[in-house]
Specification:
With 558 residues, the chain is of the alpha/beta class. It is built from 23 helices and 16 strands. The chain binds iron/sulfur cluster (2 copies).
Length: 558
């Protein structure tokens, strides 16, 4: 049973399995996850599909939004687009046997990425060489290959989007080629075709979210490597035991087997290993990626031409949907490279002719990419920032996540944005009686007395009508009220949001009077009933009522 309020297209949360440990909430780099009612997970922010929530959940309650493994190609032509990470999952097995295994599973075509990785290499080198001469590019350029990195930039580092290399990713080049050359061949004879992306990361699991150039008439389905691994292993074992099944690699040139160069792409550093320039870096792991993006934003690394980022540690072979341990996979890659070397098959001249025609450049501007890959972090107003600072003074700062937010600062931001209430903090709700140093005579006036005297309408919290009224306070800025309102006061405000109840509880107020003919939200009334805080309505201005209250002695010091 999935219980998620704003669906992420990359991950699913299963309420039935969730233990409420909040590990996913703390791990999420965009602070997108909140927990309400102990086990209802809600993705309230921008999910970039990094899969960290899947990685850290011991209960198995988070999974990738992948298609279910099934029989392929029964009623359609199934085409597998194969990530180099797949080869690394089978130490000691020849890539051709793995592709053959996929065909035995029902895939009519198995498209290896080597061809497109080489095209990407040439196009990247050409772009860098030309820009080195003209010195036009914003250095360092950032690899566009890992979509999580591009989404992270769109969300948290939008000023770095112009650094993203404007060359189409190998996966996009591959999908385009298949759509232009293989699919029309079958469509002419009326056959249905589906593309299956076999890959190790949840960020590619929903092509609707991952591929802005998707054609609706073609089914594009993502499969996690770990999903097909058991069946593929069985097929590979059969093939290893038999040499009777020849591998037909002549249908299309990109159905040939992987090169050592392509295998390298599975691990961190594989993208830049064979590139024709020296000033490049490879960074892997989510924390490292964020740290280095901060450094680039600060103006560091301008002498570096190209940075390969992978948010998964050790590279894509550390993707959460990979099937075997990342270090075993890395060792398998190293052996493959030793066997096949790092040579290229394609010639630079042919690729350059297409480069001149703009065949490999992306047409998406940095602004368009930000729009496609996610909303950037919403800025807070100065007033909200002040409110956050005031709230932070009230919180313990232990980042316990018991409120459902990943840390105290994010919780304070949620309050300022109006999506959380101070009472969600367990510590505050347990210590909500705050002593205010303000001496005055003990009042005998109750909220009920005020109600009768001024004909105020009680709309919630009538169990608290016998509270004593010690003082009065006017104001609408919650942070200011939280800092200054006296204990036992009646608070006059035009605010109707549920946070007013939390503030009233925090300051141990006698009652809230909503003035100016305003009406509180339903949630506010419900909260006030729960807390026993009376809410009364006054149709005219706070100024008029405050004058009358003061005249009858409310707020006068001895
Ligand atoms: S996939 Fe990443 S960004 Fe999305 S909710 Fe999980 S941890 Fe957050
Ligand atoms: S590093 Fe590779 S596997 Fe991990 S999210 Fe990026 S592209 Fe996917």
């Amino acid at each position: 049973m999935t219980d998620i309020q704003q669906p992420s297209c990359f991950v699913h949360f299963d309420k039935a399995l969730c233990h409420g440990h909040a590990s996913c909430i703390r791990a999420c780099p965009t602070k997108a996850i909140r927990m309400v009612d102990k086990r209802t997970v809600s993705v309230v922010g921008q999910c970039i599909g990094c899969g960290e929530c899947i990685r850290v959940c011991d209960a198995g309650a988070v999974s990738a939004a992948a298609a279910e493994a099934r029989k392929f190609g029964r009623d359609h032509v199934a085409i597998a687009l194969v990530s180099p990470v797949l080869y690394a999952q089978f130490p000691g097995v020849m890539p051709k046997d793995i592709l053959m295994g996929l065909r035995q599973m029902g895939f009519r075509h198995t498209i290896d990425m080597s061809y497109f990785l080489e095209i990407f290499h040439y196009a990247t080198e050409e772009f860098i060489n030309r820009n080195r001469e003209s010195n036009k590019a914003p250095w360092p350029l950032i690899s566009p290959v890992c979509p999580v990195v591009v989404r992270l930039i769109a969300f948290q580092f939008p000023s770095l989007m112009p650094h993203v290399l404007p060359v189409l990713r190998p996966a996009a080049l591959m999908a385009r080629e298949v759509k232009q050359r293989i699919i029309p061949y079958y469509q002419e004879s009326g056959e249905t075709v589906a593309l299956y992306y076999i890959n190790p990361c949840p960020t590619k699991m929903d092509p609707n979210c991952s591929n802005p150039d998707q054609q609706p008439e073609i089914s594009e389905i993502a499969l996690g490597i770990n999903d097909i691994f058991p069946e593929l292993s069985r097929q590979v074992e059969k093939i290893k035991d038999s040499d009777a099944i020849p591998f037909d690699q002549t249908r299309f040139e990109y159905e040939t087997c992987a090169t050592g160069n392509a295998s390298m792409w599975a691990m961190s550093g594989g993208e830049i290993a064979e590139m024709d320039f020296d000033r490049s870096l490879a960074v892997s792991g989510l924390e490292e990626t964020i740290a280095y993006l901060h450094k680039i934003e600060m103006g560091l690394f301008k002498d570096i031409e190209y940075i390969e980022f992978r948010t998964c540690r050790e590279g894509c072979l550390g993707g959460v949907l990979a099937a075997i341990d990342k270090y075993l996979a890395k060792s398998a890659v190293q052996k493959m490279v030793k066997l096949y070397g790092l040579g290229r098959r394609l010639t630079r001249e042919n690729i350059l002719r297409l480069y001149e025609k703009g065949h490999f450049q992306t047409e998406k501007s940095p602004a368009k990419l930000i729009e496609l890959y996610g909303t950037k972090k919403e800025a807070l107003s100065l007033e909200s920032l002040q409110e956050i600072e005031k709230t932070m003074e009230l919180l313990r700062g232990t980042d316990c996540a018991a409120c459902g937010a990943p840390d105290c600062r994010t919780f304070a931001e949620d309050i300022a944005r109006g999506t959380a209430s101070l009472q969600n903090c367990l510590w505050i709700s347990a210590h909500s009686t705050i002593k205010i140093k303000r001496k005055k005579g003990k009042s005998t006036m109750t909220v009920n007395d005020l109600m009768e005297r001024f004909g105020l309408q009680v709309v919630a919290g009538d169990t608290g009508l016998d509270r004593q009224v010690e003082d009065g306070y006017c104001g609408d800025l919650l942070s200011e009220i939280m800092g200054n309102a006296p204990e036992g006061c009646v608070w006059l405000t035009i605010q109707g949001h549920q946070n007013i109840v939390a503030v009233a509880v925090l300051r141990n107020m006698a009652a809230i009077i909503v003035t100016g003919g305003q009406t509180p939200d339903d949630e506010t009334l419900e909260k006030a009933n729960q807390e026993g805080i009376p809410i009364l309505l006054w149709p005219d201005s706070a100024y008029q009522l405050a004058g009358r209250l003061f005249a009858m002695g409310v707020g006068k010091t001895d």
